[in-house]
Amino acid sequence: MSNVEQDPAELRCGGVTTAAEPEAELLEPRTVPLGGPRAMMVGRTLPNRDRRMVGAWCFADFYGPADIAGQPGMQVPPHPHTGLQTVSWLLDGEVLHRDSLGNEQLVRPGELNLMTAGRGISHSEESPAGHGPVLHGAQLWVALPGEQRDVAPHFEHHGDLPVEVSPEGSVTVLMGELAGAVSPARTYTPLMGAEVSISAGRELRLPLEADFEHAVLAMSDEISVDGRPVGVGEMLYLGRGRGQVELGSGGPGRALLLGGVPFEEQIVMWWNFVGRSHEEVAQAREDWERGRASGAPDGRFGVVHGYAEPALAAPALPNAELRARGRTRKPS
């Protein structure tokens, strides 16, 4: 998924602070357009004003449930990525992925699309022809650590993820490990991501890695985390050192549980690139614009075939130098 803002802010992320983390911090989403002139609106909780990351999770968009009957739905033209993994997860509907490696994959609810950008890849995402009436899901990014940020790009689709079921609900492990269930998805730092489905009026207790920091993204109404209400689209950051968390819901509820070892590196995230310096990001932008103008399939980002509209142009770089700073804006 693309950050299609034409004046993207410099996002200063990464770096561990030694100050005590809060017991809980509510991160409210901001509404941003996705997909240009026919944009659908999404809620973005990461990066947030004061907290940019949860482990290596550096970007989280939540959308729907949106009524897209008779409408284009999601339409994101070809765009580039570097230094990250994109994680596509649906609760309802379907999205067609195409990338410059030649992969074409329809993702449905309960299936994971995982694209590792590495040194450079481009892709498009769209609601396919004849799509259903509802679209509901999340798109997340994972920052790659420095030694792997230039790996060869690759794509994974996992349609059979581990699911743990109990009377209180169920847990689907997207990435990493939770309660002994291990996802087959490739990871580059210690992290986990899981969808938690909660039975109406019940509470589901889950174990946590004490070395991880965690957060819960509410994907439906009436979600509570350790008894605290969390509104749909909001994220409750839980800090580190917890051994368990309890998720509840008044009605049938769904949430994403994210966690990971705090990301020790300082990074710059601008538009669709994750890098370590202004020069690195500026070079990625230049390479994308050169390849986009020429349509050269052997360029750094390749070419996406099959999407009906032109690739996205990169926004202009800000006048000031992009600088890598800490993962939070709070003083250490």
From TrEMBL:
Protein name: Pirin
Residues the entry annotates as binding Fe cation: 79, 81, 123, 125
Keywords annotated in UniProt: Iron, Metal-binding
Pfam families with a match to the protein in the record: Pirin, Pirin_C
GO molecular function: metal ion binding
Pirin C-terminal domain segment(s): 195-292
Family: Belongs to the pirin family.
Cofactor(s) needed for function: Fe cation
Species whose genome carries this gene: Saccharopolyspora antimicrobica
Pirin N-terminal domain: residues covered: 45-142
Note describing how the cofactor binds: Binds 1 Fe cation per subunit.
Gene3D superfamilies from the UniProt entry: Jelly Rolls
TM stretches of this protein: none
UniProt entry tagged with the keyword Iron: yes
